[in-house]
Amino acid sequence: MKRIPPAPSSPERIVRVGCPAHNCGGRCLLIAHIQDGVITRLETDDRPDLISNPQLRACTRGRSYLRRQYHPNRLLHPLRRSGRRGESQFERISWEAALDLLAGQLQRVKDTYGNSALFVPYGTGSYNQVNGSQVARRLLNCFGGCLGIWNSYSWGAVNVATPTVYGTLQTGNQRQDWLNSKYILMWGWNPAEMRDGTNSEYFIKLARQRGARVVCIDPRHSLSAAALADEWIAIRPGTDAAMMSAMAHVMISENLYDAEFVRTHCLGFDASQMPPGCEQAESYRDYILGTRDGTPKTPEWAEPITAVPAETIRRIAREYATCKPGVLYQGAGMQRRAYGEQVVRAGCVLAAITGNVGIPGGWASGLALQAPDGGPLWNVFPPGPNPVGACIPVFLWTEAVLRGKSMGKPDGVINLPDGAETLDNDIKLIYAVASNVLINQHANVNRNARILADESRVEFIAVQDNFLTPSARFADLVLPACTQFETWGVQDGWKYGDEVILLPPLVAPPGECRSDYRICAGVAERLGIAEAFTQGRDERGWVEWSLGQFRQRRFPELPSLDEMLESNAGVYARPVEQPAVAFADFRCDPQKYPLPTASGKIEIFSQQLYEMSRPEEIPALPKYIQEWESPFGPEAQRYPLQAIGHHSMHRVHSTHDNNDYLDEAFPQRLFINPEDARHRGLQDGDLVRVFNERGAVILPCRITTRILPGVVDIPQGAWWTPDESGADRRGCVNVLTSERWTPLAFATAQHTIMVEVEKTV
User: Fold this and answer.
1) Which residues, including other chains, have CB under 8 Å from residue 550's CB and lie 6 or more apart?
2) Cα separations (Å) of 674 from 112, 448, 645, 687, 761?
3) Are 464 and 481 in contact (CB under 8 A)?
4) What residues are paired with 687 via a beta bridge?
5) Going by C-beta distance under 8 Å and a sequence separation of 6 or more, which residues neighbour residue 102?
6) Rounded to whole angstroms, how far apart are CA atoms 112 and 109?
7) What's the rounded Cα separation, in Å, for the pair 395 and 150?
8) DSSP assignment of 143-180
9) What is the Cα 657 distance to its own chain's centre?
10) φ and ψ at 293, to 5 degrees?
């Protein structure tokens, strides 16, 4: 007999709410249907859709969020390790015992070593102001501080490189201005999958409909190349700066560059523009024409490096130089490589010499935070001052575990106390909140596991999350956290956008889950700093405080929390009728409105970098430098294939890897070109072993012409699942990546990987 479900006992509620996001690259609106305390359905934005104020439509990750929200493997109770670290052996304990344990360990490490031995790692698994790692950072700062971090995994090289050219990160026009462009180069940029601001792909589509030619340059035929571009150009990973240099050669030799703009607004283009004291140094023109090194950077020079035909390079150079105004938008993946700073600076210089800076429909390139105000505020929740002061590059946390006491300015450490040359501690306690960076998302997973398994190094690890992630497996204490549907939050746009989106709690948390804020408040109480931490506010109180910050710093007209709740709009959005253009004032009058660079101009030649005296790795001009793992190096004899790990629609970094709907739609596979598969005797669907000296990954292969020969792709974020031999069986690309960092920004170079592939027996 067919079972008849019971009738609902309460009326359905419909609430407009922000998507939990998890740093996906977007900020979208969901419509949640709630019945009897359960979210039964999720839809997306139904407001009028205008170019000035477009709908914030959620992608498949947001729309399938209930498969994560109600996953049977949610953490429900505090857990204490009962076996060896990494063995996933835990016992259930009470919240009282858990909070006592964490507070006691924080106090012990502080008393034994000092506050600089405490560490909160980078983590973006929860991004709604009152949740996530910033809450734990506030807790420790109230407790006397902790070792700090600077920079990010996502934008490490571009954050540092962009200001060497422009003096600022605010180099982007508002996206509605893309509709004024005639030519758009999507260089390593894939907004259809990773978003890069809600609706970025939508604005590219509209620009194309209005006549813009769109060209995608990428090693793989991405969803963006398929859906948005007129042309796909496959390029060898890590060689983008070589193609950009060759394009510059075409522009200079054929007199296609904007000579007047270069003369009035730029520094270092030729010998007549060199800064004082650097008159004899190599200029950009010298480098491109090969005046000093004897190697003109022609398209023919670039072809064997990039795998892009010389005639294609020549044509793209002419198109970008003459189809104006134009956009050269740089994706972030190509700067997560060895010497990632060079491709950022090279793209900025191409934008400058073509005169596409400071004009409607143009684009200055670089990080491109939006004009006029830099765009979204990201984190307004206050971590408070950190009494420790010292900060390490975010990517070097494993180094600070192994050799913190020897790390100083040459290792990128900043804000050392007066007279100190190195840190005074190694990391001894890690409190990871909404972060899977301890294992899964950091480079060289097997190395990380060995480091964390050694209890003589990090003496205590606490992990706070929704699931027993690979990082949580190495915790001494695991704390079950709410999802963002179970607590208060608020967020504004992601890099671009003029919105504030509310996240009120929709349902009660399962089991004994608590919000990140409530957990930290409980620890603060035990440490005697509750009042300093909470300032008398609960989660809702901090949301109201955050709205006040948005009102003060960006949106004076922003409604109150009560007004937003009463309207159930879910979002406040300011229409963009006249999109702002970065550097418009500078373009009109560079003397009256100089850039915040040392010269006040666009610095093609950086005196700051020149004075570092490291020209082989940190040249004063943007140059192509062969990577330390490369098809052109001796390592290619053993590991002949380049591997990349793109951001997939399956996951937001590692979040959603256990979402069965997304796994079905976007299964984890190795993508390999038919030519490379044929040489290895592979058939589509074969189980293959991908390996190098750092480890091995076993997963099915997908043979496709949508990737350049010599390159394989393992979508990043799959949860590390080693078998008895140590080989990963889920497809975690970070088993293969290197912990080596870029020379200037001390940033991740995780996309610089050489591997071999073989069929498993």
Assistant:
1) 377, 380, 490, 492, 500, 558
2) 58, 34, 19, 15, 20
3) yes
4) 700
5) 431, 462, 477, 479, 523
6) 5
7) 9
8) TT--BEEES-SSSHHHHHHHHHHHSSS--B--GGGGGG
9) 17
10) -95, -5
Q: Domains along the chain?
A: 79-153+383-497+506-563 (3.40.50.740), 166-371+584-610 (3.40.228.10), 634-759 (2.40.40.20)
Residue 6: its pLDDT value, please?
64
Beta pairing, strands 266-267 & 602-603: parallel
- Among candidate residues 88, 214, 107, the one with its CA nearest the CA of residue 474: 88
Half-sphere exposure in the Cβ direction for 407 (13 Å, CA)? 26
At 537, list the tokens.
């506010």
Alpha helices in 338-459 (DSSP H): 340-353, 397-403, 445-453
CA 235 → CA 217, 624, 701, 704, 753, distances in Å?
7, 14, 21, 16, 16
> 384, 141 in Cβ contact below 8 A?
yes
| Residue 281 contacts residue 610 (beta carbons within 8 Å) | yes
pTM of the prediction? 0.96
Residue type, 662: L
What stretch of H or E contains 661?
helix 660-665
Q: Is 232 exposed, middle or buried (0-12, 13-18, 19+ CB in 10 A)?
A: middle
Backbone angles phi, psi at 328, to 5 degrees: -110, 100
Before 372, cis peptide (omega within 30)?
Answer: yes
> What digits encode the pLDDT tens for the residues 157-186?
999 999 999 999 999 999 999 999 999 999
- Max Cα-Cα span within the chain: 90
Tens digits of residue pLDDT in 78-137: 999 999 999 999 999 999 999 999 999 999 999 999 999 999 999 988 888 999 999 999
Phi and psi torsions of 470, nearest 5°: -55, -35
CA neighbor of 435 nearest in space, from 687, 620, 654: 654
Query: 3-class SS at 553?
Result: helix
- As beta bridge partners, residue 41 has 33
The DSSP bridge partners found for residue 602 are: 266
Given the structure tokens 């990546």, which residue do they identify? 737
The string of DSSP letters for 307-334 reads: -S-HHHHHHHHHHHHHS-SEEEEEPSGG
**Amino acid found at 447:** R
Please name the amino acid found at residue 567. Answer: S
Residue keyed to tokens 């050219």: 165
Quote the radius of gyration of the chain (alpha carbons, Å): 26
Q: Which residue has the tokens 């098809």?
A: 631
- Report CA 145 to chain centroid distance, whole Å: 26
Q: Using one digit for the tens of pLDDT, what is the confidence trace for 697-715?
A: 999 999 999 999 999 999 9
Of 321, 316, 109, nearest to 233 by C-alpha is 316
Residue 529 contacts residue 145 (beta carbons within 8 Å): no
Question: For residue 600, how many other CB atoms are within 10 A of its CB?
Answer: 16
Cβ atoms 188, 333 nearer than 8 A: yes
Q: What is the predicted pLDDT for the residue at 195? A: 87
Closest by Cα among 578, 569, 493 to 198:
493
Token digits for 493?
């746009």
Helical spans, DSSP H, in 535-653: 539-553, 561-567, 584-588, 607-610
Kindly list the distances between the CA atom of residue 458 and the CA atoms of 82, 109, 398, 430, 453, in Å, as whole numbers in the listed order.
Answer: 17, 10, 10, 7, 8
The Cα–Cα gap between 619 and 70 comes to: 52
CA gap 537, 533 in Å, rounded = 9
pLDDT in tens, 427-468: 999 999 999 999 999 999 999 999 999 999 999 999 999 999
Q: Kindly report the average pLDDT of the chain as a whole number.
A: 97
Cis before residue 722, ω within 30 degrees of 0?
no
Sign of CA dihedral 310, 345, 751, 411: positive
Query: If you search the block for the tokens 């000296």, which residue do you land on?
Result: 693
